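Schema walk-through. Below, the input block comes first and the output block second. Nothing else is stored per chain. Lengths vary across the set, and this one has 122 residues.
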Amino acid sequence: MQKNLLMVHQWLVRIFMAGLLVQFYLAGTAVFGAESYQPHRMLGFALTILVILMLVLALVGRLGRKVVGMALLLVLLVIVQALLPALRGPAPWIAALHPANALVLMGVSVRLSRAGQAEAAG
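--- output ---
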């Protein structure tokens, strides 16, 4: 059972990473006038739900301290990611960290994927 949950978790991590790449593209389409930011926002909301599901799965499946810790870190980073654009008016220098935080999200998700692979091997 735990091995199956770990496999599902790993697929969710991969879907999340692919979603982040799409997010960069959608942000680019909005910046260059091809689209509005609405598709970027909608996918961001879906990715937030996905990250919460990953944390719940890691906790319920007892997938190891490292996997649970990184899943929790992803949830916190996604919350920060969602809050940063709201600072555009009062604190634009802080809001500008939105793309940098997205890169951190990508890095943590890669590490989470590797931690899951190590957990599956060991």
